[in-house]
Specification:
heterodimer; A: alpha/beta; Rossmann fold; Alpha-Beta Plaits; 2 domains; 4-stranded antiparallel beta sheet; 36% helix; B: alpha+beta; 10 helices
Chain lengths: 288, 357
């Protein structure tokens, strides 16, 4: 798949603290790219560098002729102006001469009925939606959103998700979204990058993530080799991790495992179910 | 940069505070007109004796319609008596003084508005929208500066128009010394531009609207305190407050068919002190042989820089002779231009280096 944006070997430090360490990612055109990482992992800094808000110490961002829209941190707008005036101002900033699309965008983010109310008096969700409308101004090829649903109520989260999916389906816009709400992100993202301590530790598509998932369990027993024989007899898929640890990649319950251990005459020391959600994948990845 | 300027203009004209500053500018000029609406004259006397026995050797009076009157009012003078010079200060403002005085008020309003308007770039994070739209930080900074200058020009133009209108309606003053006045306005504009660019650089450096709101007032007051009174003095006919010690000086009575004149007969020295500091020394060697009574003489002037002035104002304020105008203005213009350009360059570097948080 064609890449719309390539980040090559970006390094960035604040004083002695290295925030991004040789970060390289490739964003496929027409994807919703989820950027996942803990607080301070470097997600926002990476987004700032992509949007030219900050300069890297080394490395490059290849953007070609793609136009960028972004909602970084809090939505940025003139608090004393109305939603429509803010949009007009931003259209002027973008050098657009036709303002026809403003009403359409405001309708999309459900701010078309705010009239002359100053944006500073909007609710948090409305402000966030205005920020998204500003980011979507001028039909950008790529839209970056840094924690766009943070602090929103469930209804607000659903609205933002629907807006993103609408734009994605209608215009094929590429989105790069960072979020702590991984469950929510997993509902829309087509690709993921996991970032930790300033390094990209994994890039994976949603398809690969689903294919690679499937329930798995870890069992720690006093003698793994005896358990393996029973698992073979029962046709279960498993991996022998050590002489006491087995990873079972098939359906298994605690009761079932206890039964097998009893039949083998071994002691079941520990039985763990592995979380295969995005959150679980992330935790497994980061914490080993 | 055009895109940035268009957005700034759009947001400015959709902002209530913009109209407030326009009204403040107009009111400043109207109020100043009425506050100083007293006709008067600049008096300069050189005399001997005290009280009722005072004898004037030179009596100079200026008003807007008669630039200079010279007259000798005296009797025979005995050189052994001490000579005094008095520069009297009255509220004798020409219209040019009026305009310059009003500039003080509009300038303060301008700096506060400027800090408030551009401070929003950081306060609301709107600057991010400009950068993401592909406008560099330096271009944003330059646009801020250009818009600030446009606003100043608008305020100047408004001020002059309002004053002209007020004079037309209420009757007023003649504009005198037009070339000097125009130069004076340009010098004020450049000094205010320098302060403006300092304010903007400060905003990019601090990224804090409160600091950007407070410090401009301090800068503005400093500019008003140091620069504007000097401008008023030079632009108009208001005499300066200074103690002048007249050294050895003697007068000879000359007569023509109609008048009597006391003219300098000996070389003498004039020393000008400001705050007790000697800043100017004038050695007049002989009277003008072509026209007795003319104040223009062969003279030698020694400029002594005052130690009481400190950077940067000493560079701007080193001429205290109210009768030498254009030369001083040129110095003001050249130096304040240099400051503005240098500070603009510094501001660009600050804007360029500053990360956005």
């Amino acid at each position: 798949m064609e890449n719309i944006l390539t980040v090559n070997n970006i390094c960035k430090s604040y004083g002695k603290k290295k925030v991004l360490d040789d970060v390289s990612i490739r964003i496929p055109k027409g994807s919703i790219y989820g950027l996942i990482g803990k607080n301070g992992a470097g997600k926002t800094t990476l987004m700032r560098i992509i949007t030219s808000l900050q300069e890297p110490q080394s490395g490059s961002v290849e953007l070609g002729k793609a136009r960028i829209g972004a909602l970084i941190d809090s939505p940025a707008f003139y608090a004393n102006l109305s939603a429509k005036e803010n949009m007009t101002a931003h259209f002027k900033t973008l050098g657009l001469t036709s303002y026809d699309a403003i009403d359409e965008l405001l309708k999309l983010v459900k701010l078309d009925d705010t009239g002359s109310k100053a944006a500073g008096k909007f609710s948090f969700g409305m402000k966030q939606r205005l920020g998204i409308a500003i980011a979507l101004s001028g039909n950008p090829d790529i839209v970056l959103m840094d924690e766009p649903i943070n602090g929103l109520d469930p209804q607000g989260i659903i609205e933002i998700r629907e807006i993103i999916l609408d734009i994605y389906k209608q215009k094929g816009t590429t989105f790069i979204i960072s979020s702590h709400l991984l469950d929510e992100l997993s509902k829309i993202a087509t690709d993921y990058a996991f970032i930790d301590h300033g390094r990209i530790i994994k890039e994976i598509s949603a398809k690969e993530l689903i294919e690679g998932s499937g329930k798995s369990y870890s069992a720690t027993v006093s003698d793994a080799s005896k358990v393996c024989k029973v698992l073979d007899d029962e046709g279960k898929r498993y991996k022998l991790i050590s002489d006491k640890k087995i990873r079972i990649e098939d359906e298994m319950t605690l009761a079932g495992m206890s039964d097998i251990a009893e039949r083998c005459g071994v002691e079941l020391i520990e039985f763990t179910e592995h979380d295969t959600s995005l959150e679980g994948y992330f935790i497994n990845l980061v914490e080993g | 940069m055009t895109r940035c300027l268009k957005t700034f203009l759009y947001t400015m004209t959709h902002d209530l505070t913009f109209y407030i500053i326009v009204i403040v500018s107009i009111l400043a000029f109207v109020a100043t007109y009425f506050l100083i609406n007293t006709d008067g004259a600049f008096d300069n006397h050189i005399y001997i004796g005290e009280g009722d026995s005072r004898i004037y050797l030179e009596y100079e009076k200026e008003d807007p319609s008669i630039v200079v009157k010279n007259g000798s009012m005296g009797q025979t003078y005995s050189p052994v008596q001490p000579i005094f010079e008095q520069n009297s200060i009255d509220n004798s403002f020409g219209i040019n003084n009026l305009v310059v005085t009003a500039m003080i008020y509009i300038f303060l309003a301008h700096t506060v508005y400027q800090a408030s308007f551009f401070g929003r770039l950081y306060k609301n994070g709107v600057i991010r929208n400009y950068i993401i739209a592909g406008i560099s930080k330096v271009k944003v900074f330059a646009s801020c500066f250009i818009l600030s200058e446009l606003l100043l020009i608008l305020q100047f133009a408004l001020g002059i128009a309002v004053t002209a209108l007020t004079c037309a309606i209420k009757g007023g003053y003649m504009i005198i010394w037009w070339p000097s006045f125009a130069l004076c306005l340009l010098a004020i504009f450049l000094i205010l531009s320098f302060v403006s660019v300092c304010v903007l650089a400060l905003m990019f450096l601090s990224r804090n609207q409160l600091i950007t709101l407070i410090l401009p007032v301090v800068l503005g007051l400093a500019a008003v305190y140091y620069f504007t009174p000097e401008m008023i003095r030079i632009a108009g006919n208001q005499p300066y407050e200074a103690d002048i010690e007249v050294g050895s000086r003697a007068y000879t009575l000359l007569t023509d068919e109609k008048n009597e004149y006391y003219v300098d007969s000996d070389s003498f020295a004039e020393k000008l002190y400001v705050n007790g500091e000697l800043i100017d020394y004038l050695d007049k060697s002989k009277p003008n042989p072509d026209y007795p009574g003319d104040l223009v003489r062969d003279s030698a002037r020694f400029f002594i820089k005052s130690n009481v002035m400190s950077f940067p104002e000493y560079l701007l304020m080193f001429e205290y002779d109210a009768f030498v105008r254009d030369g001083v203005m040129t110095q003001y213009i050249v130096i304040s231009s240099c400051y503005t350009v240098a500070m603009f360059a510094v501001g660009c570097i600050i804007a360029r280096k500053r990360n956005l948080n």
